[in-house]
């Protein structure tokens, strides 16, 4: 269950970066204005948008989660440093705390992830569980068949049933396939 929660949490954090990167790429001029107003050099709008979009997609897909988490933690920390550093402004303080929470979620994604995604782990774990269940069912069936065969053998040994063997020459063409055959009464034997 914790693997499923980690996948959902990672996906929800990734949505933030996917939407943010796509919106930066949709309106490059407004993004460029914000970046220049923060005192950063011009020309960072498209690389920033692509970085957010690509890392968000990687995070959502579970591809290289640990590397992507570290990169995004650094990116979000730089965002706090350049864009939300006025902690006396209530709105900037809220934005900085939001980014700190995102960094916490990225730390959890780093801690609960492998370099490849959890989907393969869940699928292989489920296949293992199904294989173990099927093996247990086959073992139970084999034990039941063995117990039934043993019970039949015990009943036959205890009943001391004498089987009358009929010579092959006395059998009709109908009976020749089953040798030894117990003698059956036919309508003409009465």
Describe, in plain words, how this protein is organized in 3D.
- The protein is mainly α and 190 residues long.
- The chain folds into 2 domains: 2-116, no CATH class; 128-182.
- The chain contains 6 helices and no strands.
- The protein has helices at residues 2-26, 28-37, 45-61, 65-83, 90-111, 118-159.
- Helix 1 (2-26) crosses helix 5 (90-111), helix 3 (45-61) runs antiparallel to helix 4 and helix 4 (65-83) runs antiparallel to helix 5 (90-111).
- The radius of gyration is 37 Å and the shape is rod-shaped.
- The protein starts with a helix and ends in a 31-residue tail after the last helix.
Helix content: over 70%
Task: Write down the domain tally.
Answer: 2
Structural class: mainly alpha
Mean pLDDT over the full residue set: 83
Q: What layout of secondary structure does this protein have?
A:
Elements: H1 2-26, H2 28-37, H3 45-61, H4 65-83, H5 90-111, H6 118-159
Compose a concise summary of this entry.
This protein is mostly helical. Helix content is 71%, strand content 0%.
Protein traits:
190 residues; mainly alpha
């Amino acid at each position: 269950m914790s693997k499923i929660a980690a996948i959902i949490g990672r996906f929800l954090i990734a949505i933030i970066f996917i939407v943010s990167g796509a919106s930066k790429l949709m309106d490059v001029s407004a993004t460029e204005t914000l970046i220049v107003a923060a005192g950063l050099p011009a020309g960072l709008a498209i690389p920033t948008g692509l970085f957010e979009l690509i890392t968000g997609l990687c995070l959502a897909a579970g591809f290289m989660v640990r590397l992507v988490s570290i990169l995004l933690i650094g990116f979000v920390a730089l965002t706090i440093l350049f864009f939300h550093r006025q902690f006396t402004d209530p709105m900037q303080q809220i934005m900085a705390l939001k980014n700190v929470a995102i960094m916490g979620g990225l730390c959890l994604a780093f801690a609960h992830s492998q370099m490849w995604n959890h989907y393969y782990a869940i699928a292989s774990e489920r296949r293992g569980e199904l294989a173990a269940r099927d093996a247990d069912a086959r073992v139970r069936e084999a034990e039941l068949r063995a117990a039934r065969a043993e019970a039949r053998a015990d009943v036959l040994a205890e009943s001391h049933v004498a089987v009358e063997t009929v010579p092959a020459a006395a059998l009709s063409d109908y009976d020749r396939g089953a040798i030894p055959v117990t003698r059956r009464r036919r309508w003409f034997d009465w």
